[in-house]
Amino acid sequence: DVQLQASGGGLVQAGGSLRLSCTTAGFSFDDYAVAWFRQVPGKEREGISCITSPSVGRPWYEDSVKGRFIISSDNRENTVYLQMDSLTPEDTAVYYCAADEGRCSFLRRAYRFWGKGTLVTVSS
């Protein structure tokens, strides 16, 4: 079974950093794309970063996180990381990881498998 578990959220001051982890099971990073989404209450869940096999393509970043967030994967640990630097209060959200076969997408419907979210709160 495909399983994902996001962790690493917490409270951080503006300008600080956090690293989120998405621990996975049941699939290979060679075949699946893994994406990070975030959601603020009352707003749509938005895709912010995605990684897939290097043979398929480069990582994706939504414009608001480019240059601040870095996505990476560790095949031995079956984990995808999201390093988040220069955090602002606008980054406050519940962060989710999602996975499915194929290429990266920022469409929520492109992913069948989701982990439970982890809350990131950035104070001003």
Describe this structure in words.
- The chain has 124 residues and is mainly β.
- Helix content is 0%, strand content 50%.
- It has strands spanning 3-7, 10-13, 18-25, 32-39, 46-51, 60-61, 69-74, 79-84, 93-101, 113-114, 118-123.
- The strands form two sheets. Strands 2, 4, 5, 6, 9, 10 and 11 form a seven-stranded mixed sheet that branches. Strands 1-3-8-7 form a four-stranded antiparallel sheet, with no helix packed on it.
- A hairpin with a 4-residue loop joins β7 (69-74) and β8 (79-84).
- The model has no long low-confidence stretch (mean pLDDT 96).
Provide a short characterization of the protein structure:
The chain is an all-beta fold and 124 residues long.
Give the helices and strands, then pairings:
Elements: E1 3-7, E2 10-13, E3 18-25, E4 32-39, E5 46-51, E6 60-61, E7 69-74, E8 79-84, E9 93-101, E10 113-114, E11 118-123
Attribute tags:
single chain, 124 residues, mainly beta, 4-stranded antiparallel beta sheet, globular
